[in-house]
Amino acid sequence: APFGWVNAIVLASIRAEGLGALEDFALHFARRQRASNVIYTEVRWCPHLLLEPTVLGASDGEVRYAAARDVLEAVARGLRRGESEFPGLRLRQILCCLDFMPHVSADIARLLREVGRDCGCVGIDVAGGESHFGLPLSESPILQAVKDACAAGFGSTIHAGEDKNTGGAASNV
User: Fold this and answer.
1) Which residues are CB-neighbours of 82 under 8 A, at least 6 positions away?
2) What stretch of H or E contains 156?
3) How far is 94 from 85, CA to CA, in rounded Å?
4) Which residues pair with residue 40 across a beta bridge?
5) Distance of CA 17 to the CA centre of its chain
6) pTM of the predicted protein model
7) 7-47, pLDDT tens digit by residue?
8) Are the C-beta atoms of 68 and 107 separated by less than 8 Å?
9) What is the dihedral angle through the alpha carbons of 69, 70, 74, 75, rounded to the nearest 10 degrees?
10) Fewer C-beta within 10 Å: the chain N or C terminus?
């Protein structure tokens, strides 16, 4: 439940103030990390969760990709501002594919390839279930995105055996 509340607040802020609000959230995150004496953090998230439903479901995938890229770049600007404000603090990003939204997986791999390094991204992950493990690589957009990101030099941190609701089993580990 808390994830849904936070997401709703962030989306409302973006609607009211634009992507500058997202940049400010990232900067405030950096300040909280510094106040907690953290020196290195990897923010694990999916830019597509911060898109308007009409954009997320757009028939033109380029519209969705461009919007996700704008969201990623806004977060990166805020994190870089935090690093500038607090020398020695390092903030990196892991972009998540979503098991329940496999259609955005190619966008995630493309974001990493095209702007990931500039945005401080270090890896790819999968969140929200494990049904992708039951498919061969050729039929899974999620596993293909992970393969593509790894081929581009990004790390992967794939959680497994955790979600009994979507197939989490020892065989997934």
Assistant:
1) 26, 27, 29, 30, 31, 33, 34, 89, 91
2) strand 155-158
3) 22
4) 90
5) 21
6) 0.91
7) 999 999 999 999 999 999 999 999 999 999 999 999 999 99
8) yes
9) -30
10) N
